[in-house]
Amino acid sequence: MKITKIEVQKHNKKRYSIFIDEEYSFGITERGLIKLSLYKGKEIDINSLNIIKNQVVLEDAKEVGLNYLSYMPRSKKQVREKLENTPYENNIIESVLEYLTDLKFINDYKYALMYINDKMKFKPSSKREIYYKLKNLGIDREYIDQAIEELEFNEQDSIEKIMEKKIRKGSIDKKKIYKYLFNRGFFYNNINKILTKY
After folding, report:
1. Partner of 127 at 20 to 30 A CA spacing, among 37, 158, 168, 182?
2. Residue among 35, 38, 32 nearest 14 (CA)
3. Beta-carbon contacts of residue 194 (< 8 Å; ≥ 6 apart)
4. Up-side HSE of residue 64: CA atoms within 13 Å toward CB?
5. Helix (H/G/I), strand (E/B), else coil: 11
6. Burial state string for 98-132 with b = 16 or more CB within 10 A and e = fewer than 16
């Protein structure tokens, strides 16, 4: 058997159609084409073809993972769920997750750092809320603890920022503010300590 033609697909310019003995055999990305050293005229036996097709599936799955991560950082759980919504089998998904982790595209500790840092800057949150959200994203508690310690997260600072925002809006009803903060997961002692200042 021989690769007799390689052509760009009409509906997806980033993929190529591989023809073996003048018949369509499979589609592949440009990255996969280069990695697997496929070219017109290459001789292929049936065993090699099966191996190549398995590699093509793996390369396609990697491409899905990389594209998903190209928009924003994601946790390992988020990438897993994305891949589980595709036809890829579990062994392929695990290989992709290992590949992306080895290349540092997936790093749950850095994700926790980024998430908490964003909350500290843009949306003050309670420690409970941060734990809850990150746990739901599949982040290990150990990573969350380390990130909180490294960033020197202080729940009272978050309450202060919320209070400043409420005051700017003219809202100083302590009972309503207390209820709001409590429902957001802030600890009573921290709420009380800050509210006594106002």
Report:
1. 168
2. 32
3. 156, 159, 160, 163
4. 23
5. coil
6. ebbeeeebbbbeebbbebbeebbeeebbbbebbbe
**What pTM, to 2 d.p., does this model score?**
0.80
The backbone region for 123, taken as left when phi is positive above 0, alpha when psi lies in -120 to 50, beta otherwise, is beta
**pLDDT tens, residue by residue, 164-175:** 888 887 767 888
pLDDT digits (tens, 9 = 90+) for 89-117: 999 999 999 999 999 999 999 999 999 99
* Residue for token pair 């390689």: 6
Smallest Cα–Cα separation from 165: which of 189, 184, 152, 150? 184
Burial class (CB in 10 A: 0-12, 13-18, 19+), 46: exposed
The reply to whether CATH 1.10.1840.10 applies to domain 3-102 is: no
CA distances (Å), 40 to each of 2, 5, 35, 60, 183, in order?
A: 8, 6, 15, 21, 65
Q: How far apart (Å, rounded) are the C-alpha atoms in residues 112 and 32?
A: 32
Angle at 31 between CA 71 and CA 70, to 5 degrees: 5
Which residue type, as a one-letter code, is found at position 82? K
Three state DSSP letters for 60-120: HHHHHHHHHHHHCCCCHHHHHHHHHCCCCCHHHHHHHHHHHHHCCCCCHHHHHHHHHHHHH
